[in-house]
Amino acid sequence: MKRIRGLGLVLLTATIAIGSATAQAQQVRDVIFASGPQGGGWYASAAAVSQILTENFSGLRVTVNEGGAVSNVRTLNAGMDANVGYSWTSFLSDGINGRGDFEGSPQETVSPIMTMQRNYISIAVPARSDIHSLEDLSDKRILSGNRGGGAERAFEKLMGLIDVTYDDIRDAGGSLVFTGYGDGPSLMRDGHIDAVVIPGPAPHALILEVESQIPVRLLEVDRTILEQFVEQNEGFGIDAVPAGTYRGQDDDVTVLASYTVLAVHDGLPDEFVYDMTKALFENRQKVADVVADFDFLTEETVFHGINRDNVHPGAMRYFEELGL
Fold first, then answer.
1. Which residues lie closer than 8 Å to 33 by C-beta, 6 or more apart?
2. CB neighbourhood size of 114 (10 A)
3. Going from the N-terminus, what domains does the chain have, and what CATH number goes with each?
């Protein structure tokens, strides 16, 4: 009899625990998703993520906002204007550890979920321009994305490695355009900018749009500079946009690469994060159908560029169940 009573108590405790966990997941009614600028891959993929979440959580409202890789870390850490969103593995690591853009201000209430995408950081210029190196950009008009975005911060650091600051560019007669990537095709077509910095897949829809209007080419960045950048900035890599990706591109073009990480504010309940991680990972092909480069996410790459010790416990429980 004692055993039966004990078992009944265990079953009752388990039932209460399951009910409590379910209630935790159900009490989240709003997800505010920090993505990237309109016209970019993050914004487009966030719509697919939104659809997956609303299909798997009854009554959940998902709002997608623009953002940037650096600013999103701060926004998610605060948890007021977003509770789920994207960053780059490099900037999230810097934020958690209080380095780089977050020097002296560690972001202690934001956690990674999984790595979702490889980004080629491409610099597109008119094919007939005299721009053939980073140095040639020192007096040009450049669209580098929204201020605080990943591409913008990476570009500023790249230029810093050749001792060129934003002020130097302006003093030499150039300019910086901090706006969404979607403005790039029309601005380049009309001669208002000389270069556009775009992170994302290869081929990228916006670069394809530009080349449908004027001949363009990708800027080859000196590998020595890229190696120095990667050595100084955790979470970046060196990759190549394959020959033939764009019209007239006969050779591979060496570029900087980064990795998109999905992150959350730590205030979200563990059970909700578990369920969300499960829904997104099992339906990841739906995101890749919208932005092809999100097919980077596999069981082998889920923690690429991420310190496992920092992964949200709800997400880690799901991945441990998969044996990852």
1. 46, 49, 50, 62, 63, 64, 65, 82, 84, 85
2. 24
3. 29-117+260-321 (3.40.190.10), 120-258 (3.40.190.10)
Tens digit of pLDDT for each residue in 276-314? 999 999 999 999 999 888 999 999 999 988 899 999 999
CA-only gyration radius of the chain, Å: 22
Pick the closest to residue 114 from 323, 291, 278 (CA basis): 278
Percent of the chain with pLDDT over 90: 77
Spatial distance between the Cα atoms of 205 and 37, rounded to a whole number of angstroms: 14
pLDDT digits (tens, 9 = 90+) for 226-274: 999 999 888 888 999 999 999 999 999 999 998 999 999 999 999 999 9
> Are 156 and 168 a contacting pair, CB within 8 Å?
no
- Nearest Cα to 268, choosing from 257, 260, 281, 277? 277
Record the tokens describing residue 41, joined without a space: 């891959």
First-to-last alpha carbon distance for the chain, in angstroms, is 41
